[in-house]
Write a structure and sequence with these properties.
The protein is mainly alpha-helical. It has a domain of about 110 residues: Arc Repressor Mutant, subunit A. Strands 1-2 form a two-stranded antiparallel sheet. A hairpin with a 6-residue loop joins β1 and β2. This is MarR family transcriptional regulator. It comes from Hydrogenophaga crassostreae.
């Protein structure tokens, strides 16, 4: 290949992303285990803290998770007493929220999350992490569902 030839993608992008995610998740999960949480659980606690009491559908949309996955991931957090499900604004809706114990658990876990993030930054280099974040955000925007006219739905 000469210097002017643009390289072509090789292999399966899905497989490569999944392999990368497994390695990154292992790093975060190992650190968050000190707080008794998995990465997905920490994310749910963080989004619930940020959003406040929310409909499960709104929490699922914010975290980009389908409703059935959200329900499955909420069960251990509710059983541990870190989140609770309550009646929503009307009799047909539900609201999910952090409990005071959940706020404390999230604060404890945040220290471990930060340690994992700093270790990843050191391993990959901050410049690569910034570039990776930009590539991920651009790709997410390009892959976002739209109405056919390019408008996000």
């Amino acid at each position: 290949m000469n210097a002017t030839t643009t390289p072509k993608p090789q292999g399966c992008t899905n497989l490569q992303l999944r392999q990368l995610m497994r390695r990154v998740t292992q790093q975060y999960d190992a650190e968050l285990a000190h707080a008794g949480l998995k990465t997905t659980q920490y994310s749910l606690l963080s989004f619930a803290l940020k959003l406040g009491p929310s409909r499960p559908a709104d929490l699922a949309a914010a975290i980009k998770m389908d409703a059935s996955t959200l329900t499955r991931n909420l069960k251990p957090l509710i059983a541990a007493g870190w989140m609770r499900m309550a009646a929503g604004r009307d009799g047909r809706s539900r609201s999910v929220m952090l409990t005071p114990e959940g706020v404390a658990k999230r604060a404890e876990a945040k220290q471990h999350w930060k340690a994992a993030q700093l270790r990843l930054n050191a391993t990959l280099g901050e410049e690569r992490v910034v570039a990776l974040h930009a590539l991920i955000q651009d790709s997410m925007a390009l892959l976002a569902p739209n109405d056919g006219a390019g408008n996000p739905v």
